[in-house]
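User: Design a sequence. Structure:
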């Protein structure tokens, strides 16, 4: 079990997108929001966050999807911590992605759910 937290924040100037790789044991993000999307994959451990008044738990392989301006928290769900990789696309990035995938313009693409669980074998 890892005990030392680590964080790597990066920004790709060419594509204008930021990201985060982190392992947290004690660190917790208080309730906050962003003007960009949050797309995270939990690599190991169990992560939790509160979004729209509901507590979510994200296992390894699960994703966290947060829309711009949506208030949320983020913390470890147990004493073992968790590791995650996150991308922070802008609204323009997501508009371009939706247009590229569907051929339709959407003012602000919207995630309907804040967490996705990994599919189990046979599902």
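Assistant: Done.
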């Amino acid at each position: 079990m890892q005990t030392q937290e680590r964080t790597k924040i990066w920004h790709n100037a060419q594509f204008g997108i930021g990201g985060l790789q982190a392992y947290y044991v004690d660190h917790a993000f208080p309730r906050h929001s962003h003007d960009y999307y949050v797309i995270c994959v939990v690599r190991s451990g169990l992560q939790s966050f509160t979004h729209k008044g509901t507590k979510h738990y994200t296992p390894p392989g699960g994703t966290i999807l947060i829309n711009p301006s949506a208030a949320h928290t983020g913390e470890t769900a147990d004493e073992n911590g968790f590791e995650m990789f996150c991308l922070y696309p802008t609204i323009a990035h997501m508009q371009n992605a939706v247009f590229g995938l569907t051929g339709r313009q959407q003012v602000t693409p919207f995630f309907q759910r804040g967490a996705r669980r990994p599919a189990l074998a046979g599902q």
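The chain has one domain: 22-113. Residues 22-113 form a domain with the Jelly Rolls fold (CATH 2.60.120.10).
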